[in-house]
Amino acid sequence: MGDNRRYDLAYIEPGKWFNGAHLVRVQCKQGWLERENGTIVFNTVNIGVRPGRNHHIRNYIGDAEIFAVYVPDIEKVYMVPVEMTSHASKGYLRLAPTKNNQKKNIVWASDFELR
Question: What band does 56 get if pLDDT is binned at 50, 70 and 90?
């Protein structure tokens, strides 16, 4: 953990790098419920505010591997790969079926829930 980094915490995961392990960088986010849509929403970018200058928006591609999304309303955490959210400023996880029963391209919260 540390200040002024593009990730909030990191852990070592067994794998193929560095004598069988590699570093996984985690960016922590708070999610909120959109009950009318049956989704969890979370920010996937950082908006830098510099007095007297333009704001800059930056995603986390290359800076973190995972978003750890905490949703206080339901007291759950979801571990979402950053690469899944690379083209949007918000991430969406679905809790309830869509109103039109769409099945394709749905990102189910249950697939990413930390248990």
Answer: confident
